[in-house]
Model the fold of this input.
Amino acid sequence: MNPAGRQPRVVISGLGFISSIGNDATEVARSLRELRHGIAPFDFFPGHEVDIKVAGTIKGFDTRSSHHAEWRWPERYAFGREVLRSLPPHGLHAFCALEQLIADAKLTPELLADGETGLFTASAGSPFLQRERLNALHESHGGRMHPMGVVSTIAGTLNFNLAPHYRIRGAVCGFVSACASTAHAIGYACDEIRLGRQQRIVIVGAEDLTVESTYSFHSMRALSRNPDPATASRPFDRGRDGFVGTGGAAALLVESAASAAARGAPVYAEILGWGQASDGYNMAIAEPDGRGLATAMHRALAAAGVAPADIGYVNAHATSTPAGDRSEIRAIHTVFTAAGARPAVSSTKALTGHGLSMASVLETGFCALALRDGFTPGQAHLVDPDPESAGLNLPRTTLPSAPDYVLKNSSGFGGSNVALVLRRWTA
Done:
C-alpha cells in the first residue's frame, strides 16, 4: 500500500488497435484527424435482402469461418495452432491489439509475468461460435463436442486465453456492464494502481462483428437502417435512426507514472479520476433526463479535482440512437451548460460504429492519442443537429489543438454510466 497522501499518478502508457478506422495507432490518429470513417456495406445474410446493410468493418482480417484454419490476418502477426484453436474471431483481434501494446509500451515477458501486471478485459463472448458448437452438440446428441467449446465462446474468453499465454500473474478480471464494461475496467484499474496493489494493468476490449453479435439488436430497433455508409452513423443529428455495429479490439495500458518512466515507456495522457452512477430506470433505455450520467460526470470531476469549465473536450458515448443521444445531451447540459461551460463535444462513433463492450477502451485510446498529438476530433456526419443540442459546442471539423482536460462518457444497458477525466501529460 502507498503512504497516505502519496498516491501514484496514473497514466496511459501503451495502445493497440484493430478497428474499423485503422489497425494501429498511426492509422487511427490519421482517421480521427481527417474524420475518415470505417463504415462499409456488410452482408449479414448473403443472398437475402435484409434491413441492415452496413457495419464498421475490420480491414485486413477474414474471420468468417468457424474454423481458425481458414482465418486470414496481416503477416506481421504470427500465431500457432495452439493459440488459435481456443479463440473466437474477436480473440484473434485482441491478441493482435495486445501485441501492438506490448511493443508500444516496451513491456517484456518478465514484466508481464512479475505479478505487478494485471489484465482486465471485456467482451460479450462469441454467439457466433457458440451457435456452431451448440448445434453440433445437439445434432450429434452429445457425441460431437468441441474441446474448446466453452473457453472460446463465453464472456470470459479473453481472460482465459490472454492471461496464460502472456504468463500474467497479477490481477485478472472480466467486466460485464454492457457498453460501459471497459470504462469500468479502466476506472477500477486506476484504483488498483493508486492503492499500490498493481503497477500496471492491461485493458483489452474486443467484439465479434457477426450476425449473432450485431444483427440481434435490430429486434430492439436499435440499429440504423440507413444503407449509406457515409451517413448511417450520425450522433446528435436530427436524422439519426440507430447505431452501426462494429467489432475488432482495442488495448490500453494503465500504469503508475513512475513505472512507465523507469523503462522509458511513452506517456499519452494522465487519468485524473473517474465516477460512476446508475439510472435505476430501464434495462435497455437510458433515463430520459440523463440524471445517472450527469451524476457520473459530477463524481468524475470531483475525483479529478477539476471544474466543468476546465474540461475542453467531451468524448461522448452517443451511439446515434434517438433516445440515447438525447439523454446524453441533457446530461451534458446539466453538468456543463448550466455551469456556463462549453467544451467541444463529439462522438467518434460516427467514424467507427458502436463497439459495444470494447467502445470505452477504444474511445479512451482515441482521447489519449488526441491529447498526445494535439488535436480534438470533430463531430463527423452532423448536418442537422438535434434541437435539444442547441447551446452545445459541436465542432463539425477536427480542431488543430487539444485541450488540457478531456472527459470521456460511457453508458450501458441497465443504466450503467461511467465518466473518466484525462489530462494532457506533463511530467
Q: What stands out?
A: The chain has two domains: 10-262, 273-424.
